[in-house]
């Protein structure tokens, strides 16, 4: 049986989630990363096991209530109760409001907001018994500023922050913190697909004059996961190079 503290990181197949999983693994957690397919999970497993053989991966689709429930039941049976849960998985389905379909709205709310609710539903009860833990939800600057073409995404991320503050208040007395990390514009596959002109326009709004790196989000998550952040709960840490949030 591993002596390490257990961490679950959703959406660890690439981007920010992969960087968080690898950072927590290097910090000495036993990390279980998730991916949406068997082949994705195999690649997460291989990457995390290179850091330590105790790490592992599983298939999780947070958009599917039944699959999430059964995968996380299996997680609890196989690995135990997590000390750290990072809800990183997320999607975009951008469109201007008048063109946005019910499906585009629903998919983003179902994944980015309800998906986190589902993961927390499975994890909070055992964590309450453990009387220790940190839940870290990956939000976005768009949850604060809004963004034309992303009404669904902005609503989900703003909702995620309200959800996190509420859950934080419910479980603070059991020594479990719930916080958000809100990235600005980070170089990943999610942002790579944006047109060059849009990237240039975004760059012009960043006082730091560069896009963020995934490791910079992982650093904020590692801080919130650790003992130095025990008295921080219900908060959002913005990691965005000083972007104006007015
Ligand atoms: P990405 O698209 O590179 O990775 C997203 C991850 O989520 C992938 O591993 C994917 O498999 C997983 N995922 C998608 N749908 C899922 C589902 N239904 N169930 C489980 N996993 C699912 O994105 P990224 O840029 O690394 O973003 C990670 C998080 O950071 C997201 O929540 C995103 O909203 C947020 N974020 C990103 C940026 C940025 O600039 N990249 C900015 C602000 C916020």
Automatic annotation (TrEMBL):
This is 3-oxoacyl-[acyl-carrier-protein] reductase. Residues 5-179 form the Ketoreductase domain. It comes from Thalassolituus hydrocarboniclasticus. The gene is fabG. Belongs to the short-chain dehydrogenases/reductases (SDR) family. Pathway: Lipid metabolism; fatty acid biosynthesis. Homotetramer. GO terms for molecular function: 3-oxoacyl-[acyl-carrier-protein] reductase (NADPH) activity. It catalyses: a (3R)-hydroxyacyl-[ACP] + NADP(+) = a 3-oxoacyl-[ACP] + NADPH + H(+). The keyword NADP applies. Catalyzes the NADPH-dependent reduction of beta-ketoacyl-ACP substrates to beta-hydroxyacyl-ACP products, the first reductive step in the elongation cycle of fatty acid biosynthesis. SUPFAM superfamilies: NAD(P)-binding Rossmann-fold domains (SSF51735). Keywords: Fatty acid biosynthesis, Fatty acid metabolism, Lipid biosynthesis, Lipid metabolism, NADP, Oxidoreductase. Its EC number is 1.1.1.100. The keyword Metal-binding does not apply. It holds the Pfam family adh_short_C2. SMART domains: PKS_KR (SM00822).
């Amino acid at each position: 049986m591993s002596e390490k503290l257990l961490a679950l990181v959703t959406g660890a197949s690439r981007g920010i989630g992969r960087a968080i999983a690898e950072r927590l693994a290097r910090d000495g957690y036993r990390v279980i990363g998730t991916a949406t397919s068997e082949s994705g999970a195999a690649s997460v497993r291989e990457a995390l096991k290179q850091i330590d053989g105790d790490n592992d991966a599983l298939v999780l689709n947070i958009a599917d209530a039944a699959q999430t429930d059964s995968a996380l039941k299996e997680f609890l049976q196989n690995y135990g109760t997590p000390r750290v849960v990072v809800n990183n998985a997320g999607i975009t389905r951008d469109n201007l409001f008048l063109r946005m379909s019910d499906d585009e709205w629903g998919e983003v709310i179902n994944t980015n907001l309800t998906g986190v609710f589902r993961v927390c539903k499975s994890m909070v009860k055992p964590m309450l018994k453990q009387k220790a833990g940190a839940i870290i939800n990956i939000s976005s600057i768009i949850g604060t500023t809004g963004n034309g073409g992303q009404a669904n995404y902005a609503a989900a991320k703003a909702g995620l922050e309200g959800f996190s503050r509420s859950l934080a208040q419910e479980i603070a007395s059991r020594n479990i913190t719930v916080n958000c990390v809100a990235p600005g514009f980070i170089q990943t596959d999610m942002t790579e697909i944006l047109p060059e002109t849009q990237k240039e326009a975004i760059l012009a709004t960043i006082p730091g004059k560069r896009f963020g790196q995934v490791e910079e989000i992982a650093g904020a998550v590692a801080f919130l996961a650790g003992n130095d952040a025990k008295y921080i709960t219900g908060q959002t840490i913005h990691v965005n190079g000083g972007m104006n949030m007015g």
